[in-house]
Specification:
Length: 174
């Protein structure tokens, strides 16, 4: 008889993989992703959280707590500025959860919700960094050179991974 791996364990392992892939992809493809004046930031960590909102049980997986924990680790490991993503990640997860519950579950609904989530994430990150003096770009430069390319990259990554991750969650739901 095969032993089933609990979905919570798969979620945690997937979250760690997504976290390290964020940095690895950014490092390996830095010449492409961060080519002046554009910036494309992969947010696989947030995508994994949002896909868990879509397919998993948010209360069983404690997504709000995980979002805060991974936001704290993200701040410490990638930005060095504590407090930006520790608040933004849970907010984005909560926002995506509320909006997704209002829509019929489908790929297009997920695409729209993720679009809104990434928009909020990147915009609040920019506002927080501008507030502390870390971002010097104007709003129009931010929209064109950071938000649009980041949205494009992350929506392509969502389109590629949506159905395989849905199948993963569905296979452990039985």
């Amino acid at each position: 008889m095969k032993r089933r791996i609990p979905i919570a364990m798969i979620f945690v392992i997937g979250q760690l993989i997504a976290f390290f892939l964020d940095g690895s992809i950014s490092q390996i493809l830095s010449g492409i992703l961060f080519k002046y004046p554009n910036t494309m930031v992969p947010y696989l960590t947030v995508m994994w959280l949002v896909l868990a909102v879509f397919f998993g049980n948010a209360k069983k997986l404690h997504l709000g707590i995980w979002a805060a924990v991974i936001g704290f680790v993200f701040d410490m490991y990638y930005t060095g500025i504590l407090g930006v993503y520790v608040f933004i990640f849970p907010l984005v997860v909560y926002l995506c959860q509320v909006i997704y519950q209002m829509l019929p579950p489908s790929f297009m609904s997920g695409f729209l919700v993720y679009f809104l989530g990434i928009t909020v994430l990147v915009t609040l990150g920019f506002v927080a960094n501008a507030f502390i003096g870390q971002a010097q770009a104007s709003v129009s430069e931010f929209l064109v050179n950071t938000l649009a390319p980041t949205l494009a990259l992350n929506l392509v990554l969502l389109a590629i991974s949506y159905f395989p991750i849905e199948a993963l969650y569905r296979s452990h739901r039985r």
